[in-house]
Design brief:
Length: 401
């Protein structure tokens, strides 16, 4: 019998005993220091350190209600999904995700590697730090972890088995509401933004039926296109980085969905960082962001095309021209979901510090740039085919804001 045989919401004082009972990572008599370090919207994250040996680890623990709003709930099964996908990705892309030491489906807690020496990418970019290898790293990660789980490459029965264990209804519903519905109608009254952009939002987002139709298509593509095992929330708060390496974590929104959703999230979140650098007049930082946007698209196209040609197992997917068509569909989705991420982080309930921390006049301008660019990405997704064209949309919005 153990007090961890039945779920309860753990506090700082419970973590040392939990870790010592579930793993042999620390000596049993080690004096551990535990701090809650999470600043996400959903979970509790504890760093556990043995100051004598210098060893440390992370415990990520899911509560039934969400930190961003205690009236919101999401199944604690998200912790199992996160732990299992990290184990899968550790094999697909060794070293590119934190190592899972142990996960506990009763306590809904995952004990994993502490990424010391890495910074959360959003925080580093708020200090306008640049990472020239980022585009290469993130496109490697997306291609290796996601194309390998498509029907193009994976045995179709195995894929269907995997789809079953990654059904993630509660977390998908959060995205379906917050990202793919509310920014276009405020149907749940949870949107907020500066008054100066009210007329624009009401006319150009809530009042534009053509925009709603395109977003409705993106929503149903998100819900019905079980293309690959995607991360589902690949923003820069889900990435740990240092100049020579990039690691992806926090995949609790993972499910079988469209690959372009992840790549679009990456692009939009680089653009939020651009707004922050621009407000500080840091041209060098903005240029690095611009290069990262175009390189992320172009490297993805190049690597995905090569990966499909080398690894396709499905007979029809080996047809000449298929790889190019398949990748072009992902890029079209990417443009659309870049747009929805730009919109929802600007006016929806879950915002980003890159923009919220700006002083008023700069924040209003950043919001306008993101709203304009978001619309352009969504409405013209068929025509945005490469890195330069992704960047052109952004530059047009900056000019017109
Ligand atoms: C209610 S949760 C709000 C947001 O936080 C997560 O990181 C996801 O992005 C979600 O949409
Ligand atoms: Mg998260």
């Amino acid at each position: 019998m153990s007090r961890f045989d039945e779920y309860f919401l753990m506090k700082v004082e419970d973590i040392e005993e939990f870790v010592k009972e579930k793993t042999d990572f620390f000596e049993k008599d080690a004096k551990l220091v535990v701090n809650e370090i999470g600043d996400g919207n959903l979970n509790y994250v504890f760093r556990v350190v043995d100051e004598m040996s210098g060893k440390s680890l992370i415990v990520k623990h899911a509560g039934a209600s969400l930190r961003i709003d205690s009236s919101m709930t999401a199944s604690t099964d998200r912790n199992r999904i996160e732990s299992e996908i990290l184990l899968i990705q550790h094999k697909q892309a060794p070293g590119k995700v934190p190592e899972v030491y142990f996960y506990d489906t009763t306590m809904c807690a995952c004990i994993m590697e502490d990424l010391t020496g890495y910074k959360m990418m959003r925080t580093a970019m708020l200090d306008n730090e640049v990472f020239p290898l980022f585009a290469d790293h993130i496109t490697d990660f997306i291609v290796k972890t996601q194309l390998s789980t498509t029907d193009v490459v994976m045995n179709h029965s195995e894929k269907k088995e995997l789809v079953k264990s990654f059904i993630n209804p509660d977390l998908c519903e959060i995205t379906e509401d917050l990202v793919l519905t509310e920014p276009y109608n405020d149907i749940n009254g949870r949107n907020s933004f500066d008054e100066e952009n009210k007329a624009f939002v009401e006319k150009e987002l809530y009042g534009d039926k053509k925009l709603s139709l395109e977003v409705a298509k993106l929503k149903f593509n998100f819900m019905n296109n079980s293309q690959a095992l995607i991360h589902g929330d690949l923003h820069t708060g889900s990435i740990f980085i240092k100049p020579e390496d990039t690691k992806v974590f926090d995949p609790e929104f993972a499910f079988f969905g469209p690959i372009g959703y992840d790549l679009g999230n990456v692009i939009a979140n680089l653009e939020f960082a651009w707004c922050n650098g621009d407000a500080k007049g840091n041209r060098e930082f903005c240029e690095w962001v611009e290069n990262s946007i175009s390189q992320s698209i172009d490297l993805f196209i190049e690597k995905a095309d090569k990966y499909i040609k080398e690894n396709a197992t499905d007979h029809m997917a080996k047809t000449e021209g298929f790889a190019e068509w398949y990748v072009s569909q992902i890029i079209k989705d990417t443009a659309g979901y870049t747009g929805t991420e730009l919109h929802r982080r600007t006016i929806g309930m879950a915002k980003v510090k890159d923009v919220t921390l700006l002083e008023k006049a700069q924040r209003v301008r950043a919001q306008k740039i993101c709203l304009l660019a978001g619309k352009d990405y969504i409405m013209n997704s068929e025509m945005i085919r490469n890195g330069k064209e992704f960047l052109d949309v952004w530059k047009r919005a900056v000019q017109n804001a």
